[in-house]
Amino acid sequence: MGIFSLFGKKERPPTVAAGSIAAGRKKREEPQRGAAPAAESLREQQAEGQRQVARATALKIDAIESEMSSEFVRPAPQRPASATPVAANQKGKPGEPAAGTATISDTSFDAPVNNAMLEDVPLFEEAAILFANDQREMVETILRDAIDSDDLGAAALTAWAMLFDLYQINGNQADFEDLSIAYASRFETSPPAWMPVAGIGTDASATLRAVATPTVVFSGNLDATIGKTLEKVLALSDKHAVLRLEFVHNAVVDPVGCALLLRVLKQLRKAGLDLILVGAPELVIKIRAILEVGRRDETEAPWLLLMALLELLNQESAFEEASIDYCVTFEVSPPAFVAPNNKVTTAMEEPNAVVGHPDTFVMPALIEGRIDALVATLVTFVASHNPTRIDCAALARVDVNAAGQLMAGLMPLAGDGRLLEFIHVNHLVAALFNVIGLRDIVQIHTRKI
pTM value? Predict the structure, then answer.
């Protein structure tokens, strides 16, 4: 007797049970068999979406670079008439200075003061005296009004130069950048680079080193908006062997900004420029923060910029680690480490060559009040050096009384055939020297604009 008979239950026909089980299995297997094609289709859709994003990002980067290139390769226009004046009673080719006429020109470091131009514009004298008395707001108002009215004619460039110097002395970079944009539009040429002057009372040698090296500050976010900043870098790279790039104020780093910066760094490295990359280690940390091993973003640029910076910083072990992560993420062979041939530092470690020049006297940042000790030291130096260069790159301001004492001390030495040159003079101080007549005994060369 079977078990089912014992408990009074009927045995279920085996055909029915088997049919039910087979039907249930079929229902369960049908979605499983369709799952593989569905998953594959989803992966393809995701991959195509990533490719579209990558193409859009690449097009955006190319468009920004194209705009940069069109600005950068534009032929340099003629300087305003003030740059190359020709005396009315002198004959010469158009655009060439007349004999004996001082010009604002591109020399190795700066330009001589155009004395006639300064004398013909009373507002320059007024601005110089006000600045000597430390009335900076009034100076800004005068120069702003003069620039806005645009009625200075040949002397316009000097007003712009004074205002640029004022903003750098005050450490007012925001207004400096706004003025740079207006300058580029007005004169259709690259504006001067931001080269902040250290605060008054600081060490003169340290100030000189900071001013002597062209500096570009990457402020704000490192994103698609850095095109204009990179244009300044490229413009300066054509004129200087050393550049200082600061990355200490970048709150946000994104892939597009990484791609733009990467291409410019490659150009600078290929050109063999020495670089001072202030804040580069901190930038490396910020780039790492937006990366994830195994996640492919719209562009490889952040990874490539990370490795480029590690190469420039000569951090081979960190580069190897990053390259392995990059290899895993994009399934490619890791790039090889190539140490930089150019000199790269992360701080202003070396003094500029002019600091230790045997015939150069470095002025302090501020000259005011009684300056007997300074004049005595300067007179002693001039007496034993001919020619003498008096470097004013660190000099921010001179008051009127001190300027008179300076002239009185140098006048006896200038009368016996000695050559005295004031170099790297900011345009506000140069205007003051012109007012007191110092330019009659000393050659004064202003900073380039």
Answer: 0.47
DSSP string, 184-202: HHHHSSPPPP--PPPPTTS
List, edge to edge, every strand of the sheet that includes 274-278. Answer: 215-222, 242-253, 274-278, 344-345
- The torsion angles phi and psi of 80, rounded to 5 degrees, stand at -55, 160
- Tell me whether residue 32 is exposed, middle or buried, using C-beta atoms within 10 angstroms of its C-beta: 0 to 12, 13 to 18, 19 or more: exposed
For the record, the structure tokens of 122 come out as 């009373």
Distances (CA, A) of 414 to 71, 199, 231: 46, 31, 44
399 close to 367: Cβ distance less than 8 angstroms: yes
210 within 8 A of 242, measured Cβ to Cβ = no
H/E stretch holding 425:
strand 420-425
Cβ partners under 8 Å of residue 108, min gap 6: none
In a domain, 404, yes or no: yes
For residue 278, being part of any structural domain is answered with no
Instruction: Match 């506000």 to its residue by tokens.
Output: 428
Cβ density class 5-14: b for 16+ within 10 Å, e for less? eeeeeeeeee
Q: What is the domain-level CATH number for residue 417?
A: 3.30.750.24
Per the structure, the count of domains in the chain is 1
Q: Please give the single-letter amino acid code of residue 360.
A: T
- Tokens for 131? 């600045």
User: By the 8 A CB rule, do 144 and 178 touch?
Assistant: no
Range of the domain at 386: 355-447
**Residue 65's pLDDT band (cuts 50, 70, 90):** low
Strand, helix or coil at 365?
coil
Instruction: Judge whether 162 and 125 are in contact, CB under 8 Å.
Output: no
Inter-CA distances, 382 with 20, 107, 229, 373, 418, Å: 112, 24, 41, 14, 9
Percent of the chain clearing pLDDT 70 (strictly above): 66
| CA separation for the pair 236, 407 (Å, rounded) | 35
Long-range pairs of 146-149 with CB within 8 A, sequence gap ≥ 24 = 147/182
How far is residue 403 CA from its own chain's centroid? Answer: 34
For residue 421, being part of any structural domain is answered with yes
Give the CA angle between residues 86, 92, 96 to the nearest 5°.
Answer: 60
Distances (CA, A) of 395 to 362, 368, 414, 429: 9, 11, 21, 8
pLDDT at 87 over 80: no
Instruction: Specify if 431 maps to a domain.
Output: yes
333 backbone dihedrals φ, ψ, rounded to 5°: -75, 140
71 pLDDT tier (thresholds 50, 70, 90): very low
